[in-house]
Amino acid sequence: MDATVLIVDDEKHTREGLRQALEDDFDVYIAADRAEAMELLKNERIDVMLTDLRLGADDGMQLIEAAVALPQAPVVIMMTAYGSVDTAVEAMKRGAWHFVTKPLNLEALDLLIKRALRSRKLEQENTSLKRQVEDRFAIDRILGKSLPMQRVFETITQVSPTRATVLIEGESGTGKELVAHAIHNLSGRPKAKLVIVHCAALSPQLLESELFGHEKGSFTGAMERRIGRFEQANGGTLFLDELGEIDASIQVKLLRALGERTIERVGGNTTIKVDVRVVAATNKDLAGLVADGKFREDLYFRLNVVSIHMPPLRERKEDIPTLANAFLRELAKENNKPMREIGPEAMQALMAYNWPGNVRELRTAIEHGIVMGTGARMLVRHLPATLRGEAPAPTMHRPGRPAPAGMPLPSAAAVLPPDLSIGKMEIRFILEALQRTRQNRSEAAKLLGISRRTLQRKLKELKLADGDNEGEGSD
Q1: With 60 as the cut, is the pLDDT of residue 82 above it?
Q2: Prior bond to 404 cis, omega within 30?
Q3: Which range has the worst mean pLDDT, 180-194, 336-350, 365-379?
């Protein structure tokens, strides 16, 4: 059955032109106004609706709201000659999947519709799978409509029912643990049988006991037998987070557990069979660690049966409105605040920022905006100083191999923006410290590692305040 596209435009030549351009690839319906469009939506299976913003006396935004509220809602693409950030944000809030401006590029539109259809198909498949689980960490907690996230969803749904070991790679804050939960929940294994180990939080000796257990008296302090995480996860899933941190001795034992599906407790000589599905995650470049001799190649291949790469947020910025609005709804309720929407300028600031801390940082930024706001709309001034350009963005670890020995490091001029002087950096740090301490200068000085007197002098030198007024600010 061909995919169906509904074109809604009050200009006849536009409707007919688009129908002729698209009818070779799709089953095309046309409508001149909202009433005609709704009649078709209720009586026909419509996969994608392409609607104009202005429909004579009708409002295309209202049509979007009505269409997405239907039981079999189409994917909606809005087209308009009146393109603006405000319009795009409003269309997304009303339920539009994408936004395009006239005059239309027909080849690009054809590709966009096909992407929308893939998204719809994937969403329908995911909806079917979601019904199998009730856990809050199921696949519905991983938000995103971008092509990189579609690939992630496709891999999750493909690999979850199998026994294959999965390696999840990606920067900190990209949602690797959510993927592990989704894989387990869709695997058919008992919900209670997901066991999580944060490998970087334990020393090698403690990690060995944590994973494999130990017998009474096997080392000082071992007063009784301990069942390890592999045995606890028997019949379920073991999630090894920050796997790149484990040392060589643990790597050997882990290789055996994966290959032979058996373990031995520390201090014991009994071989214990385990049925455990292993999912591992790392923010390091494991292939690079293998090349450097810091991670076993055979273990890497055992772990990397199926690889899922979690894209950084800067590579899927089209997902920011979806994520931001979801966090807004969740966190406004949690914090008992009346905020209901993100203003256009605030959304522009979210879209322009590079997000070194990824989705985790975005969630924190939205919560900051909710807490600092007072009304129903989040404004730019409610966002953290980093998004307002008043403080430097944090430097986060990103996976990747270090530069070869002997390679010169980049100069400061190559790393810093050309207009970033020492004075501007001081201003950014001081403003951020004052904001974090709610203008308490004594606390801000402690945060900056300087005396209050030095901070007063800096404020005066940088013309940020009357530095001689010792009583200014709340202490």
Answers
A1: yes
A2: no
A3: 180-194
Q: Which residues fall within 8 angstroms of residue 189, CB to CB, at 6 or more apart?
A: 235, 236, 237, 277
Q: Map tokens 């059955």 to a residue.
A: 1
Closest CA to 306 of 438, 177, 165: 165
Tokens at 473, concatenated: 């600010």
Task: Indicate which CATH number applies to the domain containing 77.
Answer: 3.40.50.2300
Does 392 reside within a domain? no
Going by C-beta distance under 8 Å and a sequence separation of 6 or more, which residues neighbour residue 417?
A: none
Domain identity same for 302 and 350: no
Calculate what percentage of the chain has a pLDDT beyond 90: 48
> What pLDDT was estimated at residue 401?
40
- Torsion-angle region of 306 (φ positive above 0: left; ψ -120 to 50: alpha; else: beta): beta
Domain end residue (candidates: 309, 326, 349): 309
| H or E segment and range at residue 93 | helix 85-94
Residue 296 sits in the same domain as residue 149 = yes
CA distance 10 to 250: 68
Residue at 458 is within a domain: no
> CA 179, CA 170: separation in Å to the nearest integer?
11
Asked whether 197 and 210 are in contact (CB, 8 A), the reply is yes
Q: pLDDT tens, 106-129? A: 988 999 999 988 888 887 776 555
Q: Are 288 and 158 part of one and the same domain? A: yes
Task: Dump pLDDT digits (tens) for 276-308.
Answer: 999 999 999 999 999 999 999 999 999 999 999
Tokens of 204: 């090698």
Which of 323, 357, 382 finishes a domain? Answer: 382
Domain that holds residue 362: 313-382
Which domain CATH number covers 363?
A: 1.10.8.60
Helix (H) or strand (E) holding 237: strand 237-241
% of the chain surpassing 70 pLDDT: 85
Burial class of residue 452 in the structure, from the number of CB atoms within 10 Å of its CB (0-12 exposed, 13-18 middle, 19+ buried)? middle
d(CA 101, CA 155): 33
Asked whether 179 and 152 are in contact (CB, 8 A), the reply is yes
The reported pLDDT for the residue numbered 140 is 59
Residue 405 has pLDDT above 50, yes or no: no
Residue 83 lies in a domain: yes
Residue 347 counted as domain residue: yes
The DSSP letter of residue 393 is P
Kindly report the CATH number assigned to the domain that includes residue 144: 3.40.50.300
Pick left, alpha or beta for residue 171 (phi over 0 → left; psi -120 to 50 → alpha; otherwise beta).
beta
Per-residue pLDDT at 399: 54
Domain count along the chain: 3
